[in-house]
Amino acid sequence: MCFVQETRVGRDAGDHRDQGSDAGTPCPEPAQAIRQKRGSKADETQRDYTELAIDQHYPRIVAYEKLRTEQNEQEAARLVRDYRLPWETVPDQFAKSKLVWTEVLQHMPPEAMIRSLAKLTANGTIEPMSENAKFVRDRLGKAEAIRRARLHPIRILTGNLTYAMGRGIKGSLTWAPNAWIMDALDTAFYNSFESWEPTGKSRMFLVDVSGSMTFEHNAIGGIAGLTPNVVAGAMAMMLARKEPNHLIVGFSKSIVPLDVTPSMRLRDAAAAIQMKSFGDTDAAAGIQYAINNRYKIDSFEIITDGQTWAGRVQPSQALRAYRKVVDDPNVRMSMLCTAPYTGTFCDPQDALQRDFVGFSTDTPKVLELFIRGEV
């Protein structure tokens, strides 16, 4: 807690004196003195506990404070190595230091590593055939490391496609993607499926298979290749691999069979659901299909780019009809709209219906929490 307080100095993180209570973690008295001194204007005549507290109890904070003003590259690298300082603590003067970032890399967790790959490649820390490139490849290629990090496949997929772009979505940063790293990210993507537990629910995943789902201008977050159909393919793969009771279908004006299997690769899954129809799109068609076939479903999950207008029945109306047919008022529905959408597909008065507007790497995790009834 105290180390977090130190590393967040200058950020818009609220009053440092409140962080301990916000986290629900009481800090020992010396840390409280540090927090009060750093977070408020202390009386100059007040006894200065800071040096004693830091020297005796918080060597990492001492190291961090020294690193902030350090100018010697060798000493900065030593501080990072000896005190395992995280990447957030590296000051601007060492932003391009290959030596310092090499030390940071050695204890960087997988998620931070994936987020930092562009920077590490751009500043020369990761170079073709280098030891650092080999280290990253081996680290991300270990199934156990990815499993323990509990990285969602969508997060890794986003990192992979972002890295492959060779340029930042914002700013001027550019880099030459390393083939070893891209191969490791691909391996990590498939390994990450094993870290997620099934919900135990009967789930029906309904995919908009209209042509607009494949358009590059609909790419999520401006990331080349991360089109709605690719995201849908990745989520369908996870469902097929982890949920024993699932049904995956596509919809346009009617239902389109989708053959997404647990052994599929992402490219094949995305191809299986792309451009099945250029006609009208009815978002309620899948629920009507479940009604007609008397399928027992706990959760309907509909993914679309929002360009749905066909049909006489809204998804929320279809859900109410389905609940009556199966005599289960607790059936849930999630509408995942990958693009900004000003309307709503769900009934805002129904707590078991949820609109997800826009898409981020956190969306699948929140979706699973909703399906479990935890949010």
In short:
This protein is α/β, with parallel strands linked by helices. 45% of the residues lie in helices and 9% in strands.
Rounded average pLDDT: 83
Low-confidence stretches: 10-31, 41-47
Order of helices and strands: HHHHHHHHHHHHEHEEHHEHEEH
Biggest sheet: strands, sense, closure? 6 strands, mixed
Distance between the termini: 26 Å
How would the global form be characterised? elongated
Q: Count all strands and give the number.
A: 6
How many helices? The count is 17
Estimated radius of gyration: 25 Å
Give the structural class.
Answer: alpha/beta
> Roughly how much helix do the residues carry, as a percent range?
40-55%
Going across the biggest sheet, name each strand in turn: 3-2-1-4-5-6
Instruction: Report the β-strand fraction as a percent range.
Output: 5-15%
Structural account:
- The protein is α/β, with parallel strands linked by helices and 375 residues long.
- It contains 17 helices and 6 strands.
- A 6-stranded mixed β-sheet has the order 3-2-1-4-5-6.
- Strand 4, helix 16 (315-326) and strand 5 (332-337) form a beta-alpha-beta unit.
- Mean pLDDT is 83; it is low at 10-31 and 41-47.
Descriptive labels:
45% helix, 9% strand, six-stranded mixed beta sheet, 17 helices, 375 residues, elongated, alpha/beta
Topology, element by element:
Blueprint: H1 2-7, H2 19-23, H3 29-39, H4 50-57, H5 59-69, H6 73-83, H7 98-106, H8 110-122, H9 131-140, H10 143-149, H11 153-165, H12 179-191, E1 203-208, H13 228-242, E2 246-251, E3 255-257, H14 266-272, H15 285-293, E4 299-304, H16 315-326, E5 332-337, E6 353-357, H17 363-372
Parallel strand pairs: 1-2, 1-4, 4-5, 5-6
Antiparallel strand pairs: 2-3
Helix pairs in contact: 3-4, 5-6, 6-7, 8-11, 9-12, 11-12, 13-14, 15-16
